[in-house]
Specification:
The complex is a heterodimer of chains A (114) and B (115). Chain A has 114 residues and is an all-beta fold. Chain A has strands at residues 4-7, 10-13, 19-25, 31-38, 42-51, 54-57, 65-66, 76-78, 87-94, 104-105, 109-113. In chain A, the strands form 2 sheets. In chain A, strands 2, 4, 5, 6, 9, 10 and 11 form a 7-stranded mixed β-sheet that branches. In chain A, strands 1-3-8-7 form a 4-stranded antiparallel β-sheet, with no helix packed on it. The chains are: A mainly beta (114), B mainly beta (115).
């Protein structure tokens, strides 16, 4: 089954404790991206990747890191999480690197930082 | 810069009513794509439709229809004879080639369909 898989689905952590949210897609998609969803703010893009070893900042990249060493994986790293990073996170992928392909989303990761 | 406005934060209807979700976009690009996504209470985000800027034909898929009007920069979504299962948050999004990789999402409209 074609899908984007995020793990974990739920994560509670403490301020400053490094964490990684994994994202993997099995559709051989070129493009991958991370979003965060907060009430009243819609979906805001954190980082995106057009291809392996190519990553770029989205609208809210502060406090996050990403890497794209393999085409299928695009982990999101929070080196020192803070409470304002409590949010619902979505990984997404699409077939092309452009603007014309719909996004396929993972099921989301609900992160709570205390 | 691109912008997507979904002015209706929340809409509540009774089952079988028709409902229209508004989406107004802003871009200086003449080539662009518009999308609608659905987020049901279970939380996942599901792609519904894509429309490019050169195709102003309206589209119907079952009870769903989309009205794209370049003259008013709108891409509205209508659900006919709404059902409880239509209850969800609906997002409109815009992508342009001059900013490839960055999709701009509206804030979403929460639709509640009551039995």
């Amino acid at each position: 089954e074609a899908q984007v898989t995020q793990n974990p689905r739920y994560l509670i952590t403490v301020t400053g404790k490094k964490l990684t949210v994994t994202c993997s897609q099995n559709m051989n998609h070129e493009y991958m991206s991370w979003y965060r969803q907060d009430p009243g703010l819609g979906l805001r893009q954190i980082y995106y990747s057009m291809n392996v070893e190519v990553t770029d900042k989205g609208d809210v990249p502060e406090g996050y890191k990403v890497s794209r060493k393999e085409k299928r994986n695009f982990p999101l790293i929070l080196e020192s999480p803070s409470p304002n990073q409590t949010s619902l996170y979505f990984c997404a992928s699409s077939l092309s690197t452009g603007y014309n392909s719909p996004l396929h989303f993972g099921n989301g990761t609900r992160l709570t930082v205390t | 810069a691109q912008k997507v406005t979904q002015a209706q934060t929340e809409i509540s209807v009774v089952e079988k009513e028709d409902v229209t979700l508004d989406c107004v976009y802003e871009t200086r690009d003449t080539t662009y794509y518009l999308f609608w996504y659905k987020q049901p209470p279970s939380g996942e985000l599901v792609f519904l439709i894509r429309r490019n800027s050169f195709d102003e034909q309206n589209e119907i898929s079952g009870r769903y229809s989309w009205n794209f009007q370049k003259s008013t920069s709108s891409f509205n979504f209508t659900i006919t004879a709404s059902q409880v299962v239509d209850s969800a948050v609906y997002f409109c999004a815009l992508s342009v080639p001059t900013n490839a990789g960055k999709s701009t999402f509206g804030d979403g409209t929460t639709l509640t369909v009551k039995p």
